[in-house]
Amino acid sequence: MSEKKSFHLPDLGEGLPDAEIVEWHVKVGDIIRLDEPLVSMETAKAVVDVPSPFSGKVIRLAGAAGDVIVTGSVLAEVELDPSLPQRADAQDTGHHHGGGHAAPAATQVVVEEEQNDPAVATQAAPAKAASADAGTVVGAMQTSDAVRSEQAIAIGGVKAMPAVRALAKKLGVDVARVTPTGAEGVVTLADVKNAAQAGSAKLGAVAPTRAPEPSAYRATASTPAVSRAAADPAPRASANLDTDEPIRGVRRNMVRTMSAAHAEVVPTTLMDDADLHAWAPGEDIMARSIRALVAAARAEPALNSWLNAKEGTLRRHSRVDVGIAVDSPEGLFVPALRHCERLDPQQVRAELNRLRDGVKTRSLPPEDLTGYTLMLSNFGVFAGKYATPVVVPPCVCIVGAGRLHHAVVPVMGGLETHRLMPLSLTFDHRAVTGGEAARFLRVMIDDLQRAR
């Protein structure tokens, strides 16, 4: 009698308790070989191709596209084929590491908005990128065979999973012109791939006429294209209104993260302004902000730290990895800008552009979304001068940059109009004293107020 093996959903390398099925690469009855792609799973950060740890006949698949599988529960069952290669039981499969590839949501990601100022836009409250350090995971990870069904999102009358929309964008396919073959008219990954191969639904071609969406806020032809998020007040959410829908993907992780932060952190916020009057025209605000964070972290390393309250330890970092809070319709992302203490302004800009594009296409690998040592949010591009940004453990510090504005300031001999950058520093008072936080903010302000 042939041996049957169950494959349980592994931790895909992000410390998250579940993942969503995007697409099965096999069906029941298929023969799959060792390390061939079994299924694509979407976590809060990326789409991961999960390889098969066995060779043999597929006899069970747990769930369909859109179902959420709890980490550790059965994902598939395979009847082993002794004539095909198998991995030794003690051999490391590598499945616990996972790996990302470009996919999900086709989104408008707001990382930068350059209007009258070369300011860089991120969002107000950052989402946690789960750390590889086990000490940063909140609570115990429970496993079961539970499966929660979720639906494809309907946008403009077209039903498709976020991963399908992202693939369509990457391949230059207009998802509205793709013939759906999925259940209840859902466009699948295979539909998009077939349309791309046939060239039958290219972006820019005339799409079928659809009923206009009932919105009193649709942008007109005269709406400036400089800042769509700021200029177009139309609702950015793609979900149906007045209905209870499951929280999915990035937003589900945001619920967990913010709940944990609220329960753990003792937050205190300091606010002040940096006077940018000495700056030359065309200064890169984000590059200058990163430089100021590096200077402050060197002066007060207690704020460039990780707190492990359970173990009673504080790790002060020599490196400065800044988590850049990024806003998208899918939720909040925090990609890490690595080793900022080594980067010049041009390198900072290049890395920011790479991270921006990676978030937009959801192509950043999980390791780019973890391990930052402090955080920065530039919420002021939308509105607001001051805020109380949320510190996400194990970090102990986040800086929020508010809306740049001009104000009358007293100077020797009279009054002048200067451009000011409001700053809001939230710190975890369990790990940082008020004096340390104030000195950190003072160093940031002094560096920002330098001409160069």
From TrEMBL:
Domain Lipoyl-binding intervals: 4-79
PROSITE patterns for the chain: BIOTINYL_LIPOYL, LIPOYL, PSBD
SUPFAM superfamilies per the UniProt record, alphabetical: CoA-dependent acyltransferases, Peripheral subunit-binding domain of 2-oxo acid dehydrogenase complex, Single hybrid motif
Pfam families in the cross-refs: 2-oxoacid_dh, Biotin_lipoyl, E3_binding
UniProt-annotated stretches for the region Disordered: 206-242
An example Gene Ontology CC term for this record: cytoplasm
Entry annotated with the keyword Glycosyltransferase: no
Keywords, ordered alphabetically: Acyltransferase, Lipoyl, Transferase
The EC number(s) this enzyme carries: 2.3.1.-
GO molecular function: acetyltransferase activity; lipoic acid binding
Biased amino acid composition, Low complexity: 224-239
Domain Peripheral subunit-binding (PSBD): 159-196
Cofactor field: (R)-lipoate
CDD domains: lipoyl_domain (cd06849)
Subunit structure: Forms a 24-polypeptide structural core with octahedral symmetry.
Family matches, as PANTHER family: DIHYDROLIPOAMIDE ACETYLTRANSFERASE COMPONENT OF PYRUVATE DEHYDROGENASE COMPLEX
Family: Belongs to the 2-oxoacid dehydrogenase family.
Protein name, UniProt field: Dihydrolipoamide acetyltransferase component of pyruvate dehydrogenase complex
Organism: Arenimonas oryziterrae DSM 21050 = YC6267
